[in-house]
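#onboarding

Welcome to the new folks! Below is a worked example of what a typical request in this channel looks like: someone posts a single protein sequence, and someone else replies with the predicted structure as tokens. Don't worry about understanding the tokens yet, we'll cover that in week two.

Example request:
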Amino acid sequence: MSTRVILITGANGDLGRAIARAFLDESPDNIVWLAVHRRREHAEKLAAANPDRCRVVPLDVTDAPSWQQAVTRILTAHQRLDVLVNNAGTHDDALLATMKPDVWRTVLAVNLDGVFHGCQAVLPTMISQRSGRIINIASLSALLAPAGQTNYAAAKAGVVALTQSLAKEVARIGITVNAICPGYVDTGALATMDAAARAQAVERIPMRRFGRPEEVAAAVRFLACGEAGYITGSALKIDGGIL
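Example response:
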């Protein structure tokens, strides 16, 4: 079947939209669902520009019933779901000694619980199809944890471990599960960095530049394609050579 149905979370952000555009450009048969929570203006603009192949669906990734509603809506429309990209994420940095418990819980809920709920929501369909691609957006912080990010680094390290364990569980039935660990990528998430902080960060990168959302999106698209069918349980870093 040439038509593929793709669900991308965190689709209002720069990286989510870059991933969506990569799939839209890949094939005119791809149908992309943009999952959004509170903010949706950028996702709606992308959907409006591709009305036949791109749709917006509300989704709170921390809420299992919200996942079920979103997946049910997609299955009602297409009777299949081929690719899930768990891209939604957040961070709220603080030193552990002064981190508030609700900050810890919120960051883990979005970054780790959201991936758990998403995988659990799509697996029944992918198992029945005996095919599927799950790509989880982790972070270089999962592999090289910086100070001040105990919550975020722990959550993203959990995403990598979840990815590797789930990959083993579903490998025999045609489902691959992979993680991507971006380093510094020039998205809105870095917009609050001042010039000095940006210069210091760039100095740490052997390529001496931040990554582009399109470079991460290209890796996501590859891991979702048929030619990547023997790649599963991987954690691909995209960091300009930091690690």
